[in-house]
C-alpha cells in the first residue's frame, strides 16, 4: 500500500466527514481528495515527473495536507522545509534536494525572493496564501487542474518524502522516506476509516517534522477529522479542544507542561480528550505525573522514534500510564514513567549493543539500535554518513544510550553525545534532571558535562526558576545530595531565564556546552 491510498480509501468510506478544520474553514474528505487531484494534475501539467522533488516552506494549514497528497499522487517526493531555517540553510536544503518546485507561504515569500538567485534547480515557484509577483498562485492551480483521479505507478519502495534533520554539527541531513515506511506503521497501529467512529485529532506539531507527518497521515488513514493549528499557542490549543471536541492530540513535553501549568486550566472543558501522545523530547517525570493526576481519563502514550525511522518505533502505552492499581504495580509503573520508552512496535526489532556491536543483556547500558522496513535505507547523497549510521545487516544506530529491563521495556539513558563521563563513571543527564524537576523552585533544568582537569568531566546543572523564586547553588546541591549518588550530584549550578530549544522543544545541549563549558576550562 502506498500513502495516496490513505486518502482514496477514506474519501470513499466517509466522503462527507470533515477531513480538515483550519481557521474556521472545513474541508470534507471528498473535497480534500478532489483538491489534491486538481493540484496533482496541474503539477503534472507543468512537467513534474515521478521522483522529482517538490519543496514547501509553510506553517501548518489545509493546503499543506492537499500539497502532500498532490505531490504523492504525481509520484514525486515532498521536501517539507523547516520554516524557522535561516536563508543559507534553506538554500543548502533546496539545492541538495535538487528541488524542481517550491511552494511558499506569504510570510516566507520575501525570504524566497532573496535566495532565489542562489537556487540552482528550482524552476517553478508557487505562492500558497495570495497571488505574488513572479510566482504561480495555489488556488489558480486548483481551479485549472482536472478533478480526475491521478494514476501513477507507485511502488511501496518509492520515496514519498525527503525530510531534513538537523545534526549536532554540520549541515542538515536528508532522510528519504519510502511509502512503505508509513503504510507499515498505519497497517499495524491505526484502525482504518469507519463510518461509525468519528474522532477529531488536534494537530499542532509542525508538518516539517516526522511527528507531524505521522499524525497527519494517521488521521487521513483513520478517517479522523484533523483540526489544525498554524503553531502551538496554549490558550488557542485549549480553546480548540473545547470548541472542536478534540479526542486526540500530539504534544511535545514543553507543550504539555504549558497546558497543565496554565492558571486557567480548570476553566476549559477538555473532557473530550481521550488520547494524548507525547514525544520528540524527553518527558520530565514530574510533568507526566501531574498530567496523569489532572487528566485521569486521558490515555497517555509515549512515542519514541526518529526522522531516520519515519515514525514511532517504540511505545509506552496507556496501560503503563494508568496508576490506578495496587501499590507494588504502581511503584513499578512510576519507575517506568521516569525513563522508559516502552516496547518496540510489532514491525520493529530493537536491541542494546556495546561499542563492539555485541548485544547486551537486560540492565546493561549501551546504544539502542533498530531494524525494520520503516528504517531509512540511507542518508540522501551521503554514503559516508550512511555507513556510520547503518550496519551491513540493516541495524540503525540511534545514537541513544539505554538499556532493556527483564520485562522487555526499553529505557533511555541519554544521547551518546550528552552522556557525562566522570572519573570513568557514566552519568545519565536525564537521571539528574528528573531530580532537579522535583525541586519546588525549579521550572526547567538541563544537565551537561563540562571539562575538568582532575575528573575529566564534572556535572553542571543549568536551571530556570519558577516565577519570582530565588535559590542558591548550595540549596540545589543539597537537594540533589539526598537523592543522587555523590558523583552524580551537580558540582556547578547556573541559573538562567530560558533554555535554548529547537522548535520541537528539545533542549540544545550543544549550545549550553558552548556557552558554559568554556567557563570551566
The whole-number mean of residue pLDDT values reads 93
Query: What is the number of helices?
Result: 17
Strand content: 25-35%
Per CATH, the superfamily of the largest domain is: ANL, N-terminal domain
The total number of structural domains is 3
CATH class (first level) name of the largest domain = Alpha Beta
SS content category: alpha/beta
Show unreliable segments.
none
Radius of gyration: 23 Å
CATH architecture label name of the largest domain:
3-Layer(aba) Sandwich
Largest sheet, strands/sense/barrel: 13 strands, mixed
CATH level-3 fold name of the largest domain: Rossmann fold
- Strand arrangement within the widest β-sheet reads 2-1-11-10-12-13-14-15-16-20-19-18-17
Task: Please give the share of residues in helix.
Answer: 25-40%
Strand segment tally: 25
Distance between the termini: 55 Å
Amino acid at each position: 500500500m502506498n500513502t495516496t491510498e490513505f486518502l482514496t480509501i477514506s474519501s470513499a468510506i466517509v466522503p462527507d466527514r470533515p477531513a480538515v478544520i483550519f481557521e474556521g474553514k472545513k474541508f470534507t474528505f471528498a473535497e480534500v481528495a478532489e483538491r489534491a487531484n486538481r493540484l496533482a494534475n496541474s503539477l503534472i501539467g507543468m512537467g513534474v515527473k515521478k521522483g522529482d522533488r517538490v519543496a514547501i516552506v509553510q506553517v501548518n494549514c489545509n493546503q499543506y495536507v492537499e500539497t502532500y497528497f498532490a505531490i504523492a499522487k504525481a509520484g514525486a517526493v515532498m521536501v517539507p522545509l523547516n520554516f524557522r531555517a535561516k536563508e543559507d540553510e534553506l538554500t543548502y536544503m533546496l539545492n541538495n534536494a535538487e528541488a524542481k518546485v517550491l511552494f511558499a507561504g506569504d510570510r516566507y515569500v520575501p525570504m524566497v525572493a532573496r535566495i532565489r538567485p542562489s537556487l540552482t534547480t528550482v524552476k517553478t515557484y508557487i505562492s500558497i496564501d495570495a497571488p505574488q509577483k513572479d510566482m504561480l498562485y495555489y488556488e489558480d492551480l486548483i481551479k485549472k487542474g482536472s478533478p480526475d483521479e491521478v494514476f501513477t505507478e507507485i511502488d511501496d519502495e518509492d520515496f514519498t518524502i525527503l525530510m531534513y534533520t538537523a545534526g549536532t554539527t554540520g549541515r542538515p541531513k536528508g532522510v528519504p522516506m519510502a511509502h512503505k515506511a508509513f503504510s507499515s506503521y498505519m497497517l499495524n497501529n491505526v484502525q482504518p476509516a469507519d463510518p461509525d467512529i468519528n474522532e477529531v485529532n488536534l494537530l499542532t506539531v509542525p508538518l516539517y517534522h516526522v511527528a507531524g507527518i505521522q499524525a497527519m497521515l494517521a488521521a487521513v488513514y483513520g478517517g479522523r477529522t484533523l483540526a489544525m493549528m498554524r503553531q502551538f499557542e496554549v490558550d488557542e490549543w485549549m480553546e480548540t479542544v473545547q470548541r472542536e471536541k478534540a479526542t486526540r492530540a500530539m504534544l511535545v513535553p514543553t507543550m504539555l507542561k504549558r497546558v497543565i501549568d496554565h492558571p486557567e486550566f480548570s476553566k476549559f472543558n477538555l473532557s473530550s480528550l481521550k488520547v494524548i501522545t507525547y514525544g520528540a523530547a524527553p518527558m520530565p517525570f514530574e510533568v507526566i505525573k501531574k498530567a496523569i493526576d489532572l487528566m485521569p481519563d486521558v490515555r497517555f502514550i509515549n512515542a519514541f522514534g526518529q526522522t531516520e525511522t519515519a515514525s514511532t518505533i517504540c511505545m509506552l502505552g496507556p496501560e503503563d500510564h494508568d496508576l490506578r492499581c495496587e501499590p507494588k504495580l504502581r511503584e513499578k509503573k512510576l519507575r517506568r514513567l521516569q525513563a522508559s520508552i516502552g516496547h518496540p512496535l510489532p514491525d520493529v526489532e530493537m536491541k542494546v549493543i556495546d561499542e563492539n556491536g555485541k548485544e547486551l543483556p537486560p540492565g546493561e547500558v549501551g546504544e539502542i539500535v533498530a531494524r525494520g522496513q520503516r528504517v531509512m535505507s540511507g542518508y540522501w547523497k551521503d554514503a559516508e554518513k550512511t555507513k556510520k549510521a547503518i550496519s551491513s545487516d540493516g541495524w540503525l544506530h540511534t545514537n541513544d544510550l539505554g538499556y532493556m529491563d527483564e520485562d522487555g521495556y526499553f529505557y533511555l539513558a541519554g544521547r551518546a553525545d550528552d552522556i557525562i563521563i566522570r572519573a570513568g563513571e557514566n552519568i545519565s543527564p536525564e537521571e539528574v534532571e528528573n531530580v532537579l524537576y522535583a525541586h519546588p523552585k525549579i521550572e526547567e533544568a538541563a544537565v551537561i558535562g563540562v571539562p575538568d582537569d582532575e575528573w575529566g568531566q564534572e556535572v553542571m546543572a543549568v536551571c530556570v526558576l519558577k516565577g519570582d523564586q530565588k535559590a542558591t547553588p548550595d540549596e540545589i546541591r543539597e537537594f540533589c545530595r539526598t537523592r543522587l549518588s555523590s558523583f552524580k550530584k551537580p558540582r556547578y549550578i547556573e541559573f538562567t531565564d530560558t533554555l535554548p530549544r529547537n522548535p520541537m522543544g528539545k533542549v540544545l545541549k550543544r549550545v549550553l556546552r558552548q556557552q558554559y563549558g568554556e567557563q570551566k576550562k
